Amino acid sequence: MPMPKDRFDSPLSEPGRVGAHRGPRRRGSGWIAFGWALLATIVLVASGLFAVSRVMDIDLGIPWLEAPTADPGSTFVPPPPVVTDPAQIDPARGITIIVINGTPVSGLQNTIGDELAAAGWPILSRANAGDRDILDTVVYYSNPADADVARGLVQALGVGEIQEVPEGTYPGAKLTIVLGMDHPLVPAPEPPAEEGPADEAPVEEAPAE
Question: Do residues 107 and 136 lie in contact, with contact meaning Cβ atoms separated by under 8 Å?
């Protein structure tokens, strides 16, 4: 009795895989595997060289392994020091402060001096300026080392700027506050009143004839 035929009795016209049998390998597949292995080796070697150069601080002379250099234009500049708490001022510095009123507001030097003294600033004295129409509030100092206290006084006042002056310009204290018209407690000057047109004299009508 003849056996029934199955798919293995008819060979395939094209090579392929049937069961455990494999077709012929594709041409060039060996080179593809070799290329991937070579690429992986290059990546591993480069990573190892970069790690060694960074950890041991060694210049291997390979440009693409050099660490990026910082942009000179982006160099961080720390902000200047500011003394905002007068309790932090070393007493050995001998800081003293004079408050001068350069505005037409009577007693403004005492008002501001009392506020600063209550906050702990070493106020030595208060006085009126010769000119009572000074525009800008300025904290003057002659020793560059006292600029940090001058900046703190500007913050405490809430207005003004600092300015270094030659020694002896304001004798008697290390720092001098000159209050100007820009201080918030100085009222803004009233604008001059606008003059209206002059009243015209009434025209007398001639009597009728």
Answer: no
